[in-house]
Specification:
This protein has 181 residues and is mostly beta strands. The chain has one domain. It has 1 helix and 8 strands. Strands 1, 2, 3, 4, 5, 6, 7 and 8 form an 8-stranded antiparallel beta sheet that branches. Strand 3 and strand 4 form a beta hairpin. The longest helix has 23 residues. The protein starts with a helix and ends in an 8-residue tail after the last strand.
């Protein structure tokens, strides 16, 4: 009986988190997962990104600086401003979080792990012999690595999310079909 009560309590704690995540994801939002990436990842999106890298730098440009959502970065050993509403953070073991608003984030480095949800565009370019893996299909590459694709050796651009569910796909898009704000 005691084991059942503990299991029931654990389930009750889990359901609010699952429900909140489902509510945060809009009907036209896409998802990106990158695991152990090496190279360059560019995300220009309205939504959220949580990530980390072993070594490298992240450049963040906030397209909506007047909103209440501030980018958060931890572990950077050096930070510089590189333009209006744009900052770059260098280091090892850097973690970052951008939730809400619209932004452009560029991650250059190794050991990149990130998850993004929203609508916009993504550019991926892997480096090295083992460039890491990614998914635009909702797979968590940290748990389902075999279902994910290797980061491309040459730059490939993708649409993340769509307003029309009938247009949703994860095929590469050309720069002429990208609408970056």
């Amino acid at each position: 009986m005691r084991a059942f009560a503990l299991l029931l309590f654990a389930c009750l704690l889990t359901f609010p988190a699952v429900g909140t995540a489902a509510l945060m994801r809009g009907s036209g939002d896409g998802m990106l997962s990158v695991e152990d990436g090496e190279g360059r990842i560019v995300i220009d999106v309205r939504g959220g990104v949580i990530g980390r890298f072993d070594r490298g730098f992240v450049t963040i440009q906030d397209h909506t600086p007047e909103d209440p959502f501030e980018p958060k970065v931890w572990g950077a050993t050096r930070e510089i401003g590189v333009g209006l509403e744009q900052e770059r953070h260098y280091g090892q073991g850097v973690r970052f979080r951008l939730i809400g608003g619209s932004f452009r984030i560029v991650v250059n480095g190794s050991g990149i792990d990130l998850s993004a949800v929203g609508s916009g565009s993504v550019s991926l370019e892997g480096k090295g012999r083992f460039p890491g893996v990614y998914s635009l299909e909702g797979e968590d590459c940290g748990h389902a690595r075999a279902r994910c694709k290797p980061l491309p050796a040459e730059v490939q651009r993708f649409r993340l999310g769509t307003l029309d569910p009938s247009e949703r796909n994860s095929s590469p898009i050309t720069s002429s079909s990208l609408a970056i704000r």
